[in-house]
Amino acid sequence: MKPTLGVCYYPEHWSPELWPEDARRMREAGLSVVRIGEFAWSRIEPSPGQLDWQWLDQAVNVLGEAGLQVVLGTPTATPPRWMLNKHPNMLAVDVEGKPRKFGSRRHYCFSYLPYYEESKRIVSLMAERYASSTYVMAWQTDNEYGCHDTVVSYSAAALEEFQLWLEKKYASVDRLNEAWGNVFWSMEYGAFAEVDLPNLAVTEVNPAHQLDFRRFSSDQVVAYNRMQVDAIREHSEAPIAHNYMGRIVEFDHYAVGQDLEIASWDSYPLGFLEDRSDTTEEWRQRFYRQGDPDFQAFHHDLYRTVGHGRWWVMEQQPGPVNWAPFNPAPLPGMVRLWTWEAIAHQAETVCYFRWRQAPFAQEQMHAGLLRPDSADAPAIGEAKQVHTEIEELGEIEHGQAQVALIFDYESCWAWQTQPQGQSFDGFALALSMYRGLRRLGLSIDILPPSTRSLSDYKLVLIPGLLSWPASLLAQLEEHQGAVLVGPRSGSKTEHFAIPAAMPPNLPMLDCKVAYVESLRDGATRLVEQGGEVFRWLEHLESNAPSLETMADGSPLLVGNERIQYLGGWPNEEALHRILLRITEHLSVDTIAMPEGVRQRQTASHKFTFNYNAEAVEFKGDVLPPTAVTIEPI
Ligand code: GAL
């Protein structure tokens, strides 16, 4: 497969006279894909029912005739102002019960049926009009579900739908009371109509109630996306994608991905680095112009699975963004490195966001491939270079990784609901394990707990998984390779209660978590073999061999060559040793990577990336700053 490059373009922002020249320059830069349309509702339908397709027809034709393949976005993330006049109750409502106003984007509530119908109408009309266009090669539904904290809505519509959802799930209110443990604090309900949304209570709402509300909220996103997919499918056979946003875990991306042909995500490495709380200040200083060396790769590996193998970067940061606390320019070479890294993880297409920097409105400080005066911005040169290099390299063959990491959205919701220590975060735990594997030079597949097969993996890591699906347990019983189960896994039932057998509730391992402690920021406990545990420590009772112990002699890691349970959040040093030990007996090649140097292997090539601002020695070679090396294997 030969990857392609593309760009996000907003024809409605520019005079039609500019479009042909823009299209010509896109092609000249080696770009062959252009995504348009996803925020243009107010121009497609300036007032209710009055449709103006003429400009969009023209834009699709101009771009298509220049040789660009068009990805058409449905415009539902930005309902126009008239929509609110028509449907004053369409707004999402925040946890404080306040409606989220018009004036930016994503202000709709997924549960509000009249807006669902309006969305279906505009998507159908768009699909009908462009299904026969030979220039439209794919669709994008909406834009970044969940961005700006927009999945969970505490609206009247959500309440109504949630009660129906509960009734469907539990059938009788007694079963709900039993499942949630509502005898506690006399929370028992007499009817589904009495169950409220889990906000504005005096203190913490029952975590089982909260988790079900999070499941419901995720299901609403899945249903809304499916409605768009069905509306497109009635007219068009072109593949359908959604552009997910990094680190957003508020809905189940695997479930949305079931209905789509392509997964894509929006990669803003510098914005994400500044925006995140799970790295140290020193780390952010070191990588502030390069991005976290594992964050992009984690998402690439995740979306390869969400897209069943077909995935893109729909928006690639090209220069400073406008939305992070600080917005530096990438080091020269980083736009190229990010692009190649996506390709190394088997991206089909990488699109830069955006073509020309807009001189107006919210994103006027966000770089594009062109400056507002249409002169080239720095990233366009790097895009051209990647295009030339892709042409020279030839085919890259896909391959399967030897290591799998199970990542689960529902578990993220559970630990947000009950962190138990304020710095416990399910995503951060998974990323730290992933980072540990990458520090050993390993290539990784990220899989859902519902995965159908683990048999091809030599090592499976399962950090922080809420509860055990029967199918996963059955696969673990059979698994020929090694399994490392991480802290908090199996610590609850599906109804958010402590399992009768006690965590980690693993039939094949003699181990019980007697009690847990969360550690305040900065507090650590020493591990006998070296390194520390931070954030989270479990006290284990086990007759299985103790492979790692805390300084006081209590077990930290127990098990055998096949399955091990880790009862704490290890720091880099401890994790490194734990991973080395478990891989020792497996035929996987590990190598201690210099910090900031990462590699990925496909069936045909080995890619090495230097995220450092300095040259680094690696395997006898000197890797210059931001270097990308590609070796055939
Ligand atoms: C993305 C979004 C784009 C644009 C971009 C700016 O989250 O999808 O529309 O806002 O961020 O970095």
Overview of the molecule:
Strand 16 and strand 17 form a beta hairpin. By secondary structure, this protein is α/β, with parallel strands linked by helices. The protein is globular and about 75 Å long. 32% of the residues lie in helices and 18% in strands. The chain binds beta-D-galactopyranose (GAL). Beta-D-galactopyranose binds at residues 143-144, 147, 245, 266, 268, 315, 321, 323, 353, 363, 366.
Structural features:
633 residues; alpha/beta; TIM Barrel; Rossmann fold; 8-stranded parallel beta barrel; 7-stranded mixed β-sheet; 18 helices; 32% helix; globular; binds beta-D-galactopyranose
Main beta sheet: 8 strands, parallel, barrel
Number of helices: 18
Which small compounds were modeled alongside the protein?
Answer: beta-D-galactopyranose
> What is the CATH topology of the largest domain?
TIM Barrel
What is the helix content?
Answer: 25-40%
CATH superfamily of the largest domain: Glycosidases
Distance between the termini: 16 Å
Kindly provide the radius of gyration, computed on alpha-carbon positions and rounded to a whole number of angstroms: 25 Å
Shape: globular
Tally of separate domains: 3
Strand percentage: 15-25%
Main-sheet strand order equals 1-2-3-4-5-6-7-8
Give the CATH architecture of the largest domain.
Alpha-Beta Barrel
Can you summarize this structure?
By secondary structure, the protein is of the alpha/beta class.
Secondary structure layout:
Blueprint: E1 4-8, H1 19-28, E2 33-36, H2 41-44, H3 54-65, E3 69-73, H4 81-86, H5 113-130, E4 136-140, H6 156-170, H7 173-180, H8 207-233, E5 240-245, H9 253-257, E6 262-267, H10 269-275, H11 281-286, H12 295-306, E7 311-316, H13 334-344, E8 349-352, H14 378-393, E9 403-406, H15 409-417, H16 426-438, E10 444-447, E11 459-462, H17 470-478, E12 482-485, E13 512-518, E14 524-526, E15 532-541, E16 546-549, E17 555-559, E18 563-566, E19 568-570, H18 572-584, E20 597-601, E21 605-610, E22 616-618, E23 621-623, E24 628-632
Parallel strand pairs: 1-2, 1-8, 2-3, 3-4, 4-5, 5-6, 6-7, 7-8, 9-10, 9-11, 11-12, 12-18
Antiparallel strand pairs: 13-15, 14-15, 15-19, 16-17, 17-18, 20-21, 21-24, 22-23
Helix pairs in contact: 5-8, 6-8, 8-15, 13-14, 16-18
